[in-house]
Design brief:
It is built from 9 helices and 4 strands. It is of the alpha+beta class. Strands 1, 2, 3 and 4 form a 4-stranded antiparallel beta sheet that branches.
Length: 218
Amino acid sequence: MNNPELTCVQDLIGYTFNNGNLLSAAFTHSSYVNEHPAVGNERIEFLGDCVLNFLVGERLFLLDRTASEGGLSAKRSTLVSRTPLARIVDKLGLMRYLRVGAGVNKNAFAEKARSDIFEALLGAVYLDGGMDACRIVLDKIYYDFVIPERDYISALKNYGEEHGISLFWYDAYMQDGMFVAEMDAVGKRFCEKGRSKHDAEKKLAETVYKALAQTDTE
């Protein structure tokens, strides 16, 4: 990363690095390392994942001292999942700073790959400034943006069982570079597309669930 890019990222996250090389490493994909002498972000991503789980768990523990272990675990799992992390990366435009190898289309990265960038960034912040620096960054770019995602796949399954509705999932397939998921329900065929199989199936479940729920209110 060049100096203007480093400055832009630091402005976005509200933290200035002492060692800019750590930030550069966080935004270096393995495909880039295969072609250039550089340090990739996979190990830093692993560390960031550990830090994120701890700090979010700590915050939930302190916010609700009556919550059970199971309740805390479930809520943390939702907050640190790929969907909210990828959403933050998209919102801040962080993918534009990722260094990738020739021929790699980073704009086509699935949710998981985009969420990895957030974890790598947090890992770099930890290595540079420790836990307090990570808390500052999470307060700046994470907590206010995290909206727990509803698990529509499970919700749809439960809805079908409760109402005796048969749901038939077709195997997802590729079409024009996108995954396509299809389902038959209540005599209709539903279809959604996504950048990954999981993305497509999640969107499909939400569409079908809302369609069925809307029928109940009519």
